[in-house]
């Protein structure tokens, strides 16, 4: 080990465990000599004499005794006084304590042991992350954005009726929608676990992060919480009935012996209805009721309901493109397994493009109902982005990774539509 010249002091520490050993005896001219049995520290220090600048190792006895059991040997054999030795001994013991603390930290990391508090926080954060992924975040984000956009549209249309007292009620309604979404996607994961182990092994139940028993507890809590909230808000019978119908359809979609997901027509119809009609009509109806107004179809609400219903149709078509392998092994018939991945990809892209063309035409022919200066360029940009992504999918030869990426991009377009909706 090389030390900087001219430093007449302690420079470096090689840490090693201390152990019980036999008595060490050190001798020096007319100075302190004592045999001692104690914890002998094998730690070596590097001392320098400022004139010779030659390093050498010195053994140090770390006995807890107050007597001086080990004098230091320095260059030219100069002896160390008791005062100097005591000061150096204190310094060495302090450094030895720090070294032992560092050694314990390294050992803690090596053995995987962590403090109880840190362990509790780690487990809690992991469980929260698992619950969030169990809710399929991309669907939850869609629900949240839809609710905020429709509430925002109602506020823009009737700003004089907006009151901060309505905010808690609106937040509770949003929680109820998130619970319904979590129940539907959660119960689907419970009964699709064998398929997901092939198609989506990263999902919590398929990966083993979440047990089936805990998943059942979660989905039942989601359903019960949502129903209690809708009931406590004293919603109109129509809204409560729609909420219950959405939960029922989600159950029939996944649970045997019904398991309607085996039938492509039923799958497409249910997803489009729940994601398109139920959410848009139900949320906007609730917003109008909170303002004390009766529900009425405006051109904007009719547009977003039809638009998102078609997006739901596209989502229902494209969601199965990357799941062909698992569906075939588990005898699940989808449009992708029947007609092929490429064909259904083209169909889904065609429906989305139809949506954008329709939005542009509406803005042209109904300038009083929509803000044409925003609606037209926005949908031209989104439609062009869709064509670009579809060409990327074609060049990738509809590989599983490319199909999954394209499916997620459809969800991004879905989010974008709700972001611009309040302003068109």
From TrEMBL:
Would you identify the family this protein belongs to, as annotated? Belongs to the UbiA prenyltransferase family.
PANTHER family for the chain: HOMOGENTISATE SOLANESYLTRANSFERASE, CHLOROPLASTIC (PTHR43009:SF10)
* Listed name of the protein: Homogentisate solanesyltransferase, chloroplastic
Principal localization reads: membrane
- GO CC aspect terms: chloroplast; membrane
* Record bears the keyword Plastid: yes
**UniProt membrane topology term:** Multi-pass membrane protein
Write the record's keywords in alphabetical order, separated by commas: Chloroplast, Membrane, Plastid, Transferase, Transit peptide, Transmembrane, Transmembrane helix
Q: Where are the transmembrane segments?
A: 171-193, 214-232, 238-256, 263-285, 297-318, 339-366
- What subcellular locations does the record give? Membrane; Plastid, Chloroplast
The record ties this protein, via InterPro entries, to: AtHST-like, UbiA_prenyltransferase, UbiA_sf
Instruction: Cite the GO molecular-function annotations of the record.
Output: prenyltransferase activity
A Pfam family (short name) is UbiA
């Amino acid at each position: 080990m090389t030390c900087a010249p001219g430093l007449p002091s302690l420079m470096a520490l090689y840490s090693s465990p201390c152990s019980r050993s036999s008595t060490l005896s050190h001798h020096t001219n007319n100075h302190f000599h004592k045999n001692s049995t104690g914890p002998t520290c094998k730690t070596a220090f590097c001392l320098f004499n400022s004139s010779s600048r030659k390093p050498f190792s010195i053994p140090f006895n770390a006995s807890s005794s107050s007597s001086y059991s080990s004098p230091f040997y320095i260059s030219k054999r100069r002896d160390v006084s008791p005062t100097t030795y005591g000061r150096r001994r204190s310094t060495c013991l302090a450094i030895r304590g720090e070294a032992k603390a560092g050694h314990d930290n390294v050992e803690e990391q090596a053995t995987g042991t962590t403090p109880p508090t840190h362990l509790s926080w780690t487990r809690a954060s992991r469980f929260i992350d698992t619950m969030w992924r169990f809710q399929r975040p991309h669907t939850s984000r869609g629900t949240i954005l839809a609710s905020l956009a429709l509430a925002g549209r109602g506020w823009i249309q009737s700003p004089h009726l907006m009151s901060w007292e309505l905010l808690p009620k609106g937040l509770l309604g949003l929680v109820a929608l998130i619970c319904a979404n979590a129940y539907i996607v959660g119960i689907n994961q419970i009964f699709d676990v064998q398929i997901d182990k092939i198609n989506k092994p990263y999902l919590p139940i398929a990966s083993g992060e979440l047990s089936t028993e805990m998943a059942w507890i979660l989905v039942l809590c989601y359903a019960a919480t949502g129903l209690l909230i809708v009931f406590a808000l004293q919603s109109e019978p129509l809204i409560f009935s729609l909420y219950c119908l959405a939960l029922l359809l989600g159950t029939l979609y996944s649970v045997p012996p019904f398991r309607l997901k085996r039938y492509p027509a039923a799958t497409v119809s249910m997803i489009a209805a729940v994601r398109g009609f139920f959410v848009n009509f139900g949320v906007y109806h609730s917003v109008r009721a909170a303002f004390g107004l009766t529900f009425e179809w405006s051109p904007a609400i009719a547009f977003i309901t039809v638009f998102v219903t078609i997006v739901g149709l596209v989502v229902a078509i494209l969601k199965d493109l990357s799941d062909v392998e698992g569906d075939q092994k588990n005898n699940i018939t989808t449009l992708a397994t029947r007609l092929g991945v490429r064909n259904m990809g083209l169909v889904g892209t065609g429906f989305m493009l139809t949506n954008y063309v329709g939005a542009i035409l509406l803005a042209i022919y109904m300038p009083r109902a929509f803000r044409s200066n925003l609606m037209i360029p926005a949908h031209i940009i989104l439609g062009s982005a869709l064509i670009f992504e579809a060409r990327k999918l074609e060049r990738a030869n509809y590989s599983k990774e490319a199909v999954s990426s394209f499916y997620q991009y459809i969800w991004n377009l879905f989010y974008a539509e709700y972001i611009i909706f309040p302003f068109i």
